[in-house]
Amino acid sequence: MSVCEHLTNFVYNEVKYGVKVYKDECTQCFDTQDSENGINVCLTCFNGGCSNDIYNHSLYHSQHFKHPLVLNIKRTPKPRKVDEPPQKITKLEIVEEKEEDLYDINTKIKCLVCNKELNRTYGKLPELIDSILLANSSKVQNEINSWEEEIVSCTHTENLEQCEPKKLEEQSLAHCSECELRENLWLCMICGNLGCGRQQYGGIGGNGHALKHFETTGHAVSCKLGTITPEGNADIYCYSCNDSKLDNHLADHLNNFGINIKSQKKTEKNITELQIEQNMNLDIKMTTKDGKELEPVYGPGFTGIENLGNSCYMATIIQMMFAIPEVAQRYLDLSFDQSLGDYKPAESYLCQMTKMADGLLSGRYSIPIDKNSPQKFQKGISPFMFKSLVGKGHPEFSTMKQQDAAEYYQYFLQYIELNEKKFGNDPTTVFKFSLHERLQCKQSNKKDEEGNEYEPVSFDTCLSQLALEETVEFNCPNCKTKTEAFKSTKFLTFPKYLVTKMERMKLVNWVPQKLAIPIILPEDKIVNLDNYRSKGLQEGEEELENVNEEEEEPAVNEEVVSQLMEMGFSRNRCVRAIMATDNNGAEVAMNWLFERMDDPSLDDPIEKKSKKNGGGVTANAENVALLVDMGFSSTKVEKALIETNNNIERAIDWLSSHFEDDIELTSNQDTTDKMDEDEIDNKPAKYELIGFVTHMGTSAQCGHYVIHLRHENKWYLYNDEKVVKVTEELPTENAYMYLFKRL
């Protein structure tokens, strides 16, 4: 093998702990080590790039950053022996299946500038190759960080007072003190009683005798036998806290019962592993009523998504969003823009959204697996970079716990909208609409206009609850009294695509339980929303004075004002800070002030606003143009400038803190605020069903999500990586979310 000048001059970088090594997958597409050409890992920055004939992201990275050397990693499955009898089980022990047992790993050192393979034994290359292969990949690091649920100790584990030392029977002879169960045993860490746990997923028995022991004795802390490891890990449960806890003195506490932690072997799955197994294995039937397997489909638009462990909620929403042409095209148009990878592609919003669009819609990854593989369906794509980026910083979506698909949908919409502000090309506008709230005073009759087993119910009945008239308490500006009013809500405008969520959960003794109520759609799957259209102020009706007019004095929390003033700030500055941070508390306002210590405009008198017209402030045209060029909508920009008296810096702060709000400008003229005719959406409001998400399980925190989508008048089921054509009647009555398209 040869040596080139780039190798002789190469400066070696060490793979330090915590450095992400992108060796599993290209950061800009879904090519992996299993792809035809494998993955090239940059030896300078450890970025992963493909070398396929379409994109060759590795070559672009090399040329752009002048990083010439790569380690090519190609993985090939080892042949599996067919009809080999399973190994006889002589003991129960959890053994991890290792990659080297399943695959052959081939590596090469290449110079992409010289376009040739190099001598892998030159200089420090052998050590660098080993360190890359042994390092946790970015995927594994993300999984570790996501699965690491923050389990902490509690007062019951920290202040544990044990009874006299007691030696337990050998585990092989041990059984529950109340029954004969020999698995799923929980050791009371106070008295040493052995009790069976509650029944668990997967046929693991339990009669709840450990819980009964707690209820009888008050001994709260238990340890699950079989989950103890020599490293000091085990399932610890506090019945008083009703949660998993950490025992910082586990070895000492177990020693009280003659258990040497160093000699323990893990023989049972812990709670987290059981939950993962439940969510990974809970599956929808992939067969017809007569037992025939549903037909797998492949090609563009039919790419499955691998379950990363409790990620089906995300997969269904991703499939739904990228099935919308306006969303898909926004990012497909960027597929050949190599510059998206110019800066940390794994952490780039546009790069990962474009990668997802290409992965799902190109068809390159929707292909049958090798016929020798035991897996019947396609492999699909594994969006671990996407999940890590979108969920970054979120207390729930950054974890590997099961989540609510509807909540993720709302979060994902906001995530796109926020990031697209920089580019001014938000595709989520096709989901937006305005509701019209109507208040009718009972006394003056004037209106205020502002923007288990269950019987089946129709979708229209559910929708009618939105527009249902209700009686509310009301301070009438006309009557000048506290009275009651009729309140109702209807559509002012309609979206191109309508997503609805059915309320399928209710609290029973503060525990969420699922409502298995069948929802009946019309036979043609078309719903008409014309009955829920707002018609505005009608003839013979008088409009109430604006009940949402601003007060003359800005409404601020006086307690927060006092806290800030005690730190030495003037009242004027304190009030400005609280207003600019939208009354979000002293700490946020304090940070805002510290960032603007040298801004003299904060000492200017605060403008008092007229109740009628906002003090006559109008937005400066030059300032409007400047902020619109930054990607903000003109309506929000005008509102921000009016609110901040045309102060550009404060307007930007205001826009940042109100990015999720639907903003409407009120007229600066002293006129009655009636809706213009062109504000009202008069087009037919008929919608046809094009998709629906179904949840299987007892609550939103467990179970499994799948989605049905319609393509060219045919229906398909997306169940993680499995995509099949549906030939029977659609199970729409069990849907959790519906996706409609306006006709």
UniProtKB/TrEMBL annotation:
Biological-process GO terms, alphabetical: protein deubiquitination; proteolysis
Positions contributing to Zn(2+) binding: 176, 179, 196, 209
Gene3D superfamilies for the chain: Cysteine proteinases, DNA helicase RuvA subunit, C-terminal domain, Zinc/RING finger domain, C3HC4 (zinc finger)
Transmembrane segment boundaries: none
SMART domains per UniProt: UBA, ZnF_UBP
Record flagged with keyword Repeat: yes
EC number: 3.4.19.12
Enzyme class: hydrolase
One of the record's GO molecular function terms: cysteine-type deubiquitinase activity
Residues annotated as the enzyme's active site: 312, 704
Origin superkingdom: Eukaryota
Keywords assigned: Hydrolase, Metal-binding, Protease, Repeat, Thiol protease, Ubl conjugation pathway, Zinc, Zinc-finger
InterPro entries (UniProt xref): Papain-like_cys_pep_sf, Peptidase_C19_UCH, Ub_carboxyl-term_hydrolase, UBA, UBA-like_sf, Ubiquitinyl_hydrolase, UBP13_Znf-UBP_var, USP
Catalytic activity from the UniProt record: Thiol-dependent hydrolysis of ester, thioester, amide, peptide and isopeptide bonds formed by the C-terminal Gly of ubiquitin (a 76-residue protein attached to proteins as an intracellular targeting signal)
Domain UBP-type: 2-109, 152-261
A Pfam family reported for this protein in Swiss-Prot or TrEMBL: zf-UBP_var
Domain USP: 303-743
Domain UBA span(s) in chain numbering: 555-596, 618-658
Protein transport is among the record's keywords: no
Protein family (similarity comment): Belongs to the peptidase C19 family.
Name of the featured protein: ubiquitinyl hydrolase 1
Species of origin: Neocallimastix californiae
